[in-house]
C-alpha cells in the first residue's frame, strides 16, 4: 500500500482518483510546520503540495521512502529541487491546469488598477459617493509589456489584443515565428520597459529573474507606468517598486504575490496606488480541479512505475518520441548493468554511442537509463533516473553521449564503453523487429544473447574440451544451461562463452569454473532486476 500525504488544500474532486485507488492511502494534513513535516514525512511515498508547504532540504533529508513530490500548480520554488534530485525524488507539477485562471486574474488586476476599482469600492463602503477621486485610464491603444511569454504570458497577449492594446514581449526563448503568431512585437527588456504603459511579469522565480525589475528598470520606465505581478514575489524588487511609487514614476502596482507570503509589515500594502490579492491567481474552481486531477494522475503513474510526463527534474520527452524510445529503455539499462559487472576497479568514465535510426532522436533519457544500470550495480536501489547524473558527477565519473553514423549493419545500435582505473569494457545492443532486444557485441566479440536472467561470462582459450568441461561442471552441480553463445576472433586464440543459466550459481561453483584448464576468467552477470 502506497501512502500519500496532502499538505496543502487541494480540490477533493481532483484528488478522487488517488483517494479511490485500491493501492493508495491518502492522508490530508493541512498546515503542518516544517518540524511536523520532518517528523511525519518518513511514512510517505509521495507528497502533494501547492505553494504554502515549504519542502526544504531538511524535509527531503527526513523523507526516507519518498518517491515523488507533486505540485498542484506551476511554480516549484517552494520545493528544494537540488535536494530532491540528489535524493532521487521525482518532482512533478501540473503546468497547464491554471494557465487560464492566472491569465484572467492578471487581466482583472490590470483593469482594476487602471480603473481604481478597489479604491472606489472601499470609498463606497465608507458611505461615500466620490466620483472625482477615481479617474482612471483606458487600456485601449496602450502598450502592454509582457515579460515571460510562456503559457500565461501568451494568454494575456491574446486578451490584450481584444482590448486593442499594442503588445511587446521579452522572453529569451521567444522565436520570431511565435511572436508573429501571437501578434506581439519581440523586444529586449530595456526596450520593453521604455515603451510600456503597463508591464506584467510571467516568468518563474529563478536566480536570473530575481529582481529582474529593479531601480535601473524603474528609471528607464515611462513616467506613470503601471506594474502587475501575478507570477512570483521577488521578480520585482519590492523596495525599488516602493521608491518608484513614492517618486510617482510608477502610477500604480497590482500585486498578487509577495517576496514574503503572507506579507507582514510590508509598506507596499499601505500605499494608496497599490492593489493586492492574497496569491489568488490559480484560485478558481476550474483551475483547482484541473491541477489536483492532473497531479494525482501523475503521482499514481510514478508510484505504479508507469510513464509520466511532467517531471520538472527530468528532461521532458514529447509523447511521439517517448513511444519510439520506449522499447530501448530496458535494453539501455541492461547494457549498463552488464558492462558494470564485467569491469574491475574504480569507475572513471562511461560513454554511450548511438548509431542508426537512434541518431535522429534526443537520446538523453536512454543515456540516463544506461547510467542508472551502471551505477545501480555499485550503489544499489538508491539510484534512479533522477539522481543518476548527479551521483556520477559527485563521484567524479565522466559520462558522455555521442552519435555515430556508422551503424555496423544494425538499424539501431547502442554501444556502452566503461573505463575503470584497471580496464576498459565495451558492450553493444540492438532492438530487432519481432525479436526484441539483443546484446550483439562484447568487446571485440560478436555474440547474440537476450539481455535477461542469470548469465555467466567466461573468457577462455579456444581449445577442444574447454566448452565441454564447463558444461559438465555445471551439470554436475545441477545447474541447467538454457542457452550458450561462443565468440572468438581467430581459431585457437582467446574466446568468450556467455551462458544463460536457470538460477544463480554459488561462489564455490564460480571458483571451480575458474580452476578449469583453458579458462582465463569467470564473471557472473545478474540481469534479473
Ligand atoms: N499567482 C499565481 O497564483 C500563479 C503564478 N504562477 C507563476 O507564473 C509563472 C509562469 O507560469 P507559466 O506561464 O505557466 O510558465 P511557462 O513556463 O509557460 O512560462 C514562463 C516563461 O518565462 C520565460 N522566462 C524564463 N526566464 C526568463 C527571463 N529571465 N526573462 C524573461 N522570460 C523568462 C520562459 O522562457 C517561459 O516562456 C510560474 O512560474 C509561476 O511562478 C503560475 C500560476 C499561478
Ligand atoms: O501554480 C502556481 O505557480 C501558483 O502560484 C499557484 O499557487 P497556489 O497553488 O494557488 O498556492
Automatic annotation (TrEMBL):
CDD domains: ACT_3PGDH-xct, PGDH_4. One of its GO terms (biological process) is L-serine biosynthetic process. Transmembrane segments: none annotated. It catalyses: (R)-2-hydroxyglutarate + NAD(+) = 2-oxoglutarate + NADH + H(+); (2R)-3-phosphoglycerate + NAD(+) = 3-phosphooxypyruvate + NADH + H(+). The keyword Oxidoreductase applies. The keyword Amino-acid biosynthesis applies. Pfam families: 2-Hacid_dh, 2-Hacid_dh_C, ACT, PGDH_inter. Its EC number is 1.1.1.95. Keywords: Amino-acid biosynthesis, NAD, Oxidoreductase, Serine biosynthesis. Pathway: Amino-acid biosynthesis; L-serine biosynthesis; L-serine from 3-phospho-D-glycerate: step 1/3. GO terms for molecular function: NAD binding; phosphoglycerate dehydrogenase activity. Residues 455-527 form the ACT domain. It is an enzyme of class 1 (oxidoreductase). Belongs to the D-isomer specific 2-hydroxyacid dehydrogenase family. Catalyzes the reversible oxidation of 3-phospho-D-glycerate to 3-phosphonooxypyruvate, the first step of the phosphorylated L-serine biosynthesis pathway. Also catalyzes the reversible oxidation of 2-hydroxyglutarate to 2-oxoglutarate. This is D-3-phosphoglycerate dehydrogenase.
Amino acid at each position: 500500500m502506497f501512502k500519500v500525504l496532502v499538505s496543502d488544500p487541494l480540490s477533493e474532486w481532483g484528488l478522487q482518483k488517488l483517494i479511490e485507488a485500491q493501492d493508495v492511502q491518502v492522508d490530508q494534513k493541512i498546515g503542518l510546520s516544517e518540524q511536523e513535516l520532518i517528523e511525519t514525512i518518513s511514512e510517505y511515498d509521495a507528497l502533494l503540495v501547492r505553494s504554502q508547504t515549504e519542502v526544504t532540504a531538511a524535509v527531503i533529508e527526513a523523507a526516507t521512502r519518498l518517491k515523488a513530490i507533486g505540485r498542484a500548480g506551476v511554480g516549484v520554488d517552494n520545493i528544494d529541487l537540488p535536494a530532491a534530485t540528489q535524493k532521487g525524488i521525482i518532482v512533478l507539477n501540473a503546468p497547464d491546469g491554471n494557465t487560464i485562471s492566472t491569465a484572467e486574474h492578471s487581466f482583472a488586476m490590470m483593469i482594476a488598477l487602471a480603473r481604481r476599482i478597489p479604491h472606489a469600492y472601499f470609498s463606497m463602503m465608507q458611505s461615500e459617493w466620490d466620483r472625482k477621486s477615481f479617474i482612471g485610464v483606458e487600456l485601449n491603444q496602450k502598450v502592454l509589456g509582457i515579460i515571460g511569454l510562456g503559457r500565461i504570458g501568451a494568454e494575456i497577449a491574446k486578451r490584450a489584443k481584444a482590448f486593442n492594446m499594442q503588445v511587446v514581449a521579452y522572453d529569451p526563448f521567444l522565436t520570431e515565428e511565435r511572436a508573429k503568431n501571437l501578434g506581439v512585437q519581440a523586444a529586449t527588456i530595456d526596450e520593453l520597459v521604455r515603451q510600456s504603459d503597463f508591464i506584467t511579469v510571467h516568468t518563474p522565480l529563478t536566480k536570473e529573474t530575481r529582481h529582474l525589475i529593479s531601480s535601473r528598470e524603474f528609471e528607464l520606465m515611462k513616467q506613470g507606468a503601471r506594474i502587475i505581478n501575478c507570477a512570483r514575489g521577488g521578480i520585482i524588487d519590492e523596495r525599488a517598486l516602493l521608491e518608484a511609487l513614492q517618486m510617482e514614476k510608477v502610477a500604480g502596482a497590482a500585486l498578487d504575490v509577495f517576496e514574503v507570503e503572507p506579507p507582514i509589515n510590508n509598506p507596499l500594502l499601505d500605499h494608496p496606488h497599490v492593489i493586492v490579492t492574497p496569491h489568488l491567481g490559480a484560485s478558481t474552481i476550474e483551475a483547482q480541479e484541473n491541477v489536483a486531477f492532473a497531479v494525482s494522475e501523475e503521482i499514481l503513474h510514478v508510484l505504479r512505475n508507469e510513464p509520466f510526463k511532467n517531471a520538472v527534474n527530468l528532461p521532458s520527452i514529447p509523447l511521439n518520441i517517448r513511444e519510439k524510445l520506449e522499447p530501448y529503455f530496458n535494453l539501455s539499462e541492461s547494457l549498463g548493468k552488464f558492462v558494470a559487472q564485467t569491469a574491475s576497479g574504480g569507475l572513471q568514465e562511461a560513454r554511450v554511442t548511438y548509431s542508426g535510426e537512434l541518431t535522429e532522436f534526443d537520446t538523453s533519457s536512454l543515456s540516463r537509463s544506461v547510467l542508472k544500470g551502471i551505477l545501480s550495480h555499485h550503489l544499489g536501489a538508491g539510484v534512479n533516473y533522477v539522481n543518476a547524473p548527479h551521483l556520477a558527477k559527485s563521484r567524479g565519473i565522466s559520462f558522455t553521449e555521442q552519435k555515430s553514423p556508422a551503424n555496423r549493419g544494425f538499424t539501431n545500435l547502442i554501444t556502452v564503453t566503461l573505463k575503470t582505473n584497471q580496464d576498459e569494457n565495451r558492450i553493444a545492443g540492438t532492438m530487432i523487429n519481432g525479436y526484441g532486444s539483443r546484446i550483439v557485441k562484447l568487446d571485440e566479440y560478436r555474440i547474440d544473447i537476450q539481455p535477461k536472467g542469470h548469465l555467466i561470462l567466461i573468457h577462455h582459450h579456444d581449445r577442444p574440451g574447454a566448452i565441454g568441461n564447463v558444461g559438465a561442471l555445471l551439470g554436475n552441480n545441477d545447474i541447467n544451461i538454457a542457452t550458450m553463445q561462443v565468440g572468438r576472433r581467430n581459431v585457437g586464440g582467446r574466446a568468450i562463452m556467455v551462458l544463460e543459466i536457470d538460477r544463480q550459481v554459488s561462489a564455490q561453483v564460480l571458483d571451480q569454473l575458474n580452476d578449469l584448464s583453458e579458462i582465463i576468467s569467470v564473471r557472473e552477470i545478474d540481469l534479473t532486476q
